[in-house]
Amino acid sequence: RAKRDGGGVARRFDPVMFAKAEQRRLAEQDLMRGLEAGEFEVHYQPIVDLTQGGITVGVEALVRWRHPEKGLVPPALFLELAEQLGQVPRLGGWVLEEACRQAMDWQIRFPGFEMNVNLSASQLGNPKLIDEVREVLRRTGLPPHDLVLELTESVALTDLVESARVLSALKELGVRIALDDFGTGFSSLSHLSTLPVDVVKIDRSFVQAMPETGGASVAEAVLHIARTFNLSPVAEGVEDAGQAERLRELACARAQGYHFARPMPALGVTELLAKQSPVVIDIDVES
Ligand code: C2E
Ligand code: MG
Ligand code: MG
Ligand code: MG
Questions:
Q1: Model confidence over 45-102: pLDDT tens digits?
Q2: HEC profile for the chain?
Q3: Does the interface ipTM go beyond 0.90?
């Protein structure tokens, strides 16, 4: 490989470059093996309603890799590589089906229990996505309104016209769309009127920057924006009681974060729900 550059220019063997390439090759192999072996799990983080005493009204599905040697690996350590290997549509399709099936299980006790699932750019760009979502809803029987598909601004804005088309088609199925990590991307505001979005998830950086008492905050401004555009806000990354209280004062009904619960295996949510008195959660009337 030393003469790869052509023109007869011989390159010296670079041990660092070689080690990096080798490491990457092994990581790719390991990931493909893990996918083949079905080593992935979906964990679920509760989303609570602050206006109803903090009951759990839904969850966000978050993928993890149960690695035989490394233990539980978070998505930050494998999603990008999976994306580069073109495996995210397949993995994401599996997450979607698994999550919807699980949501149906929880809906027996809590009708209207909501399931949030993250979509990546490659999934949004996949022409089969709409059929796939329709099929998963049909197979699992989950009411479309109780499925919320989350995408980040950077995903939605890669191709605005195409995104608007795909999101509209998804909305025709009855599912809802959330803008994830809202406020961290570029020119968020101008796109709220272009994209058919129902929910904004206020990024945890804004939630954590809220002042203890008084004072304006970006979180508050984002809440105003949400109201202006008739979008339901969900605060992400709530880590303490002060933040939860402040959000309640700002009339942000929904929140998610370590203060309430960490992401957990399905069984943990089942146990949590068993302690909660069964109620009909979904009381908002569809417009
Ligand atoms: P996200 O969709 O914004 O998910 C929220 C992330 O914040 C999760 O990280 C969650 O564990 C973490 N988090 C929740 N509460 C708190 C808190 O109070 N404090 C802090 N510091 N963090 C909190 P996780 O599970 O590592 O996921 C990271 C990202 O990976 C997700 O961000 C999402 O963009 C992506 N992701 C996860 N699962 C999937 C999936 O199935 N498909 C796709 N396409 N992306 C996924
Ligand atoms: Mg998300
Ligand atoms: Mg987020
Ligand atoms: Mg986030």
A1: 999 999 998 999 999 999 999 999 999 999 999 999 999 999 999 999 999 999 999 9
A2: CCCCCCCCCCCCCCHHHHHHHHHHHHHHHHHHHHHHHCCEEEEEEEEEEHHHCCEEEEEEEEEEEEECCCEEECHHHCHHHHHHCCCHHHHHHHHHHHHHHHHHHHHCCCCCCEEEEECCHHHHCCCCHHHHHHHHHHHHCCCHHHEEEEEEHHHHCCCHHHHHHHHHHHHHCCCEEEEEEECCCCCHHHHHCCCCCCEEEECHHHHHCCCCCCCCCHHHHHHHHHHHCCCEEEECCCCCHHHHHHHHHCCCCEECCCCCCCCECHHHHHHHHHCCCCCCCCCCCCC
A3: yes
Q: pLDDT, tens digit, for every residue of 195-249?
A: 899 999 999 999 999 887 777 788 999 899 899 989 999 999 999 999 999 999 9
Q: Give distance in angstroms: CA of 144 to centre of ligand 2.
A: 18
**Counting atoms of ligand 1 from 1, which one is nearest the CA of 258?**
18
Ligand nearest to the CA of 148: 2
Q: What is the pTM for the complete model shown?
A: 0.91
| Closest atom of ligand 1 to CA, residue 123 | 44
Ligand 1, atom 38, residue with closest C-alpha:
62
Ligand 1 binding site (Cβ under 6 Å of any ligand atom): 45, 61-63, 74-76, 79, 92, 95, 118-120, 150, 180-181, 204, 237-239, 256-258, 263
